[in-house]
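Quick start: read one record
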Amino acid sequence: MAQICVALNTDSWKETHRLIERLKDEADLFKVGLPLYLNDGRKHVEDLVRNGVRVFLDLKLHDIPSVVAATVRELPKVEYVTVHATGGKALMETVVEARPDIKVVAVTLLTSVSETEARDIFKRTPRKLVIHLSRMASDARAWGVVVSGQEARAVRKYFNLLNIVVPGVRLRRREDDHARVVSPEKLKWLKEDDIVVVGREVTEAKDPLSALKRIRAALTK
């Protein structure tokens, strides 16, 4: 079964620490995004790491290689960090070399991008684009790629050594900014090093722990 990562879509670090304390025995790791990190995040992330919390730092870095390399050298020693695969192979290689102590995860196509938008922007279907970007990530020796559940099997078929991170996982369809979503039942084939990311379905639930347990059960039954 894949690891479960809870996306901390919270407004404050006080709320974040309260949520982590509530879920830490059920979640495998926690994702910190750019808005939360910009809110005095370095100090809080360092504290989390010091206390044994596994952190997935989702900054989605995208700039010229030297700038991104300089940025990641200043990051705390988290377990994972994301960069955009569309930045190119050289960008990903530079980050891998700059921080060999952090697992570099390349974001292929955001789950907010629909098939129509992908064709408009990139002139390719999401599947073809994700495979192309995953090939670059593999060549750059990235730890893994972020892909929607709709393209995950194709990535595993062609790039078995790449680890897979799947966001936009939903027990039920809801109106939000994810266009390409998948249910946890369809991800039971993922490996134990792969990661399933769950967010508002847990963090905004009346009982976040129960919601997280339902998702774990759906991944295993």
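The chain has one domain: 3-220.
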